[in-house]
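tool=predict chain=A
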Amino acid sequence: MWDQRFSAEHYVYGKDPNGFLEENVDRLPGREVLCLAEGEGRNAVFLARHGFSVTAVDASAVGLEKARCLAAEHSVEIDTVHADLEDYALGIDRWDAIVSIFCHVLPPLRRKVHAQVPAALRRGGVFLLEAYTPAQLHNNTGGPRDINRLMTAEQLQQELAPLEFQCLREVEREIVEGAHHTGLAAVVQVIARRP
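tool=predict ok
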């Protein structure tokens, strides 16, 4: 599905970074950042342009090729890893920050990935996430139509429990991030730190 979607000539979600990430980039510590389900690379390239060493993991080889092209367009480098999150180990004490933008997988996989996050972060490391909530089903502005793939603040608080939450909220905001994410959106936002 994702290879087919990303095979479009244009960047499906645009070339600009996610707004929540852009607003909070200064809250990301250190240097090494992992971007989950990074797709065509807009967030990874943005972070690389801000001096981070970025690893982008995604199940779509087509998306990652576009990510490398976008990086070259901006004269930066990113590491890309072609892997399904089901099979990708986040590591131990590996990252200064982990970024998850609109990574809508089914609950068993989401819980598996989120369970790895606290240990994968170095001490003081930060996890930043934005995703659609179930309230997004009332909008026609992007995101999966499967309620099981959507997230709530309560779920994320449980799944990321060892982390200290600096931001955990459900909000509505205008999103203009490519043809598939445009308009008023119901999202959950997380910034959480490993003590």
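The chain has one domain: 2-193. Residues 2-193 form a domain with the Rossmann fold fold (CATH 3.40.50.150).
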